[in-house]
Amino acid sequence: MQSSVPVYSHSRLSAFEKCPLQYRFRYLDKIKRDTQGIEAFMGNRVHEVLEKLYRDLLAARRPSLDELVALYHRNWEAEFSDKVKIVRTERTAESYRETGEDCIGKYYRRFEPFDQASTLGLEERVTVSMDEANRYRLQGYIDRLARAGDGVYEIHDYKTSASLPSDAHLRSDRQLTIYQMAVQKRFPDAREVRLIWHFLALDRTLTSGRTDDEVAQHRRQTIRLIDAIEAAKAFPSKVSSLCRWCDYMDICPEFATPGAGAAAGVAVATAPAGGVKVEATVAPRPPQPVPGPLQRLAELHERRRTLDAQVDHLRGEQAGLDREIAAIEAEVLVGLPPPSAAAPAAPMQPRGRRRIPERAPGQTAEPPRQRQLFST
Ligand code: SF4
User: Which domain holds residue 256?
Assistant: First the structure.
């Protein structure tokens, strides 16, 4: 029997978690908006250029950096309009444009000649079901899918944001975990799937992986969240700093009534006629009413996901510590005389359940442990 549950995407799930009312406007009422934040606009232009780079490489042609930058500026000029919103008034359209160019240059110089892995797909649409009955389905688009060796697949994601997420945040990332599920389904030989985020503006690449348990945990959480959305009868507003970028601020009851935004703690200035700037600054909010059960449920899901990831991360770190302790003990304790022998016992570390001698002066440190999440 055909499921009546829609095909979800990571952005659709995130929209509900961030603000159920915005979710309703976009996905249920299907209210169209033709404006776009300049961050998304710039990100789209950068994605286009990196897609062009790899499409040319697939055709055995390597475009120069100058060609790609020229393409970026052509696309920018062709697409830019007064529908592009600048929320951060301390920045200009030109400064965003320069950031995008910088992202392309850094990526190009870092990865040229781009032979680290074989590209399998660009803007590759993937779908995956969370359950056997095919009721909970998700879809998404992978920026670049690649094969790095027999059974080793890479999911590349380009970010143009100016800040790095925490390890815990990356480990709990749902979007690329969903893509991993899709890749594992499509390629039964996949013995390793690498999740790779390129933080282009910072010239940093973060790589992570997911264990089978972590994938299963994400699957369960996603099903629970879809259940919550499908069961929702009310879609309350959820005011936050993200309201500044919301396309529905003009019809949101928190802001649509003159003075309502101020009451909610958000000051909004009208855009100049024909201009591109939208000023919206978020001030400290007064005490908020107790959230409704639906809002609370979304918050708890988000919090639960973060905590799960942190717990898993700590378990991994604990296992690594145990291995390191065992290795050091094997190295330094074997062959030592028993404590009753003439030589005095080495001083104890102030904490810890095991007896470990202090490191001798000049003794080299242990090499750093391999971490599942690493950056370059
Ligand atoms: S302006 Fe804020 S509270 Fe209103 S719909 Fe948008 S995100 Fe939700």
Answer: 241-282
Ligand 1 within 6 A of CB of 15: no
The answer to whether position 367 is within a domain reads: no
In a domain, 329, yes or no: no
Ligand 1, atom 2, residue with closest C-alpha: 243
Distance, in Å, from the CA atom of 15 to the CA atom of 212, rounded to the nearest integer, reads 27
Select from 68, 100, 115 the last residue of a domain.
Answer: 115
The angle formed by the CA atoms of residues 25, 30 and 36, to the nearest 5 degrees, is 75
The domain total for the chain is 2
Q: Is the peptide bond before 113 cis (omega within 30 degrees of 0)?
A: yes
Q: 37 and 87 in contact (C-beta within 8 Å)?
A: yes
> How far is 331 from 325, CA to CA, in rounded Å?
10
- 54 domain-assigned: yes
How many A from CA of 271 to the centre of ligand 1?
18
| Whether the CB of 243 sits within 6 Å of ligand 1 | yes
Mean pLDDT by 10 residues, the chain (376 residues): 78 96 96 94 98 97 98 98 93 96 98 95 95 93 96 97 89 93 95 96 94 93 95 94 93 75 41 33 40 61 56 50 55 52 38 32 35 41
Supply the DSSP symbol for 26: I
Residue with tokens 């909010």: 285
**Residue 64 included in any domain:** yes
What's the gap in Å between 260 CA and the centre of ligand 1? 12
From 63, 85, 115, the end of a domain falls on 115
Residue nearest (by alpha carbon) to ligand 1 atom 5: 22
Look up residue 155 and give its amino acid: I
Distance CA 164, CA 206 (A): 9
- Taking the C-alpha atoms of residue 36 and residue 244, their distance in angstroms, rounded to an integer, is 12
Residue to mutate, 18, 26, 235, 248, ligand 1, most ligand atoms under 8 Å from C-beta: 248
Q: Which mutation among 14, 18, 19, 25 tests ligand 1's pocket best, with the greatest number of atoms within 8 A of CB?
A: 19
